[in-house]
């Protein structure tokens, strides 16, 4: 697809999304500008990513380190890059150099690896803890009970900054079950903020994807991760 066609399609989709986000925020008595979109670019071309950034999207999300490395080299426009997939500890070094925010930290072992690599790179890395709010065995993330101990361990690491929580909702058609996952994360975020752990800032609730982001906004999401809603169906 030609770059101009990418731009036309993405601009059209983005305008519609802005309207839907605004409606969802207003229904929840929230300010639409509070909600930021992370464009999930898994399997998309560098040209599609470039078009999305030029259309006004400021955050790009990738699931795989290798794919992000190749794609980022082909994108000239500036954006904040997020890692949103399952990260293996042996990819921590690459992740530290490529991403501004790692959303999917789910163990002290991974946090320690990222901290060590960030120290070597002389930088601090923003991270989110991924919580498995659905209880589904196939989903990554820690349990609710593990959150506070892990947050305290991360707070002791000098090159990581814990900035919030992330979850993936239950994969089902029942809106009430999906929304309950988002509600759990919001409540956990409130608990984490109330503990006032030094160095921990509850800045982000990352939840909601193309099929359920309006429910997530209703429960307080301020980062929503959207792919097909921006780029259309994958080939």
The CATH homologous superfamily is named Alanine racemase
The residue fraction in helices comes out at 40-55%
Instruction: Choose one word for the global shape.
Output: globular
Q: How many β-strand runs?
A: 8
Share of residues in strands: 15-25%
User: What kind of assembly state do the chains in view correspond to?
Assistant: single chain
Poorly predicted parts? none
Characterize the largest beta sheet: strand count, sense, and whether it forms a barrel.
8 strands, parallel
How many separate domains make up the residues? 1
The CATH topology comes to: TIM Barrel
User: How does CATH name the architecture?
Assistant: Alpha-Beta Barrel
Rounded Rg: 17 Å
Identify the CATH class.
Alpha Beta
| Element-by-element helix/strand order | HEHEHEHEHEHEHEHEH
Give a brief outline of the structure.
This protein is an alpha/beta fold and 235 residues long. It has helices spanning 3-27, 46-55, 65-73, 92-98, 108-120, 147-155, 175-195, 213-218, 228-231, and strands at 36-40, 59-62, 80-83, 101-105, 125-130, 160-166, 204-206, 223-226.
Keywords for this structure?
single chain; 235 residues; alpha/beta; TIM Barrel; eight-stranded parallel beta sheet; 9 helices; 8 strands; globular
Can you characterise this structure?
This protein has 235 residues and is an alpha/beta fold. It has a single domain, classed as Alpha-Beta Barrel (TIM Barrel). The chain is built from nine helices and eight strands. Helix 1 crosses helix 2.
């Amino acid at each position: 697809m030609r770059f101009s066609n990418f731009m036309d399609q993405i601009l059209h989709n983005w305008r519609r999304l802005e309207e839907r986000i605004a409606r969802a925020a207003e229904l929840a008595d929230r300010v639409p500008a509070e909600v930021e979109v992370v464009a999930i670019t898994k399997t998309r071309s560098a040209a599609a990513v470039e078009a999305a950034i030029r259309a006004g999207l400021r955050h790009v999300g990738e699931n795989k380190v290798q794919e992000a490395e190749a794609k980022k080299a082909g994108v000239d426009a500036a954006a904040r890059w997020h890692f949103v997939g399952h990260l293996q500890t042996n990819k921590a070094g690459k992740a530290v150099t490529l991403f501004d925010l790692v959303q999917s930290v789910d163990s002290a072992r991974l946090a320690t690896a990222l901290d060590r690599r960030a120290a070597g790179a002389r930088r601090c890395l923003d991270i989110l803890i991924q919580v498995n709010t659905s209880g589904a065995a196939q989903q990554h993330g820690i349990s609710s009970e593990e959150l506070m101990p892990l947050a305290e361990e991360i707070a002791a690491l000098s090159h990581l900054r814990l900035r919030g929580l992330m979850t993936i909702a239950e994969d089902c058609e029942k809106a009430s079950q999906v929304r309950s996952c988002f509600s759990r994360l919001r409540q956990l975020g409130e608990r984490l903020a109330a503990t006032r752990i030094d160095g921990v800032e509850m800045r982000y609730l990352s939840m909601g994807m193309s099929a359920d982001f309006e429910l997530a906004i209703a429960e307080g999401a301020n980062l929503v991760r959207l792919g097909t809603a921006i780029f259309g169906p994958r080939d």
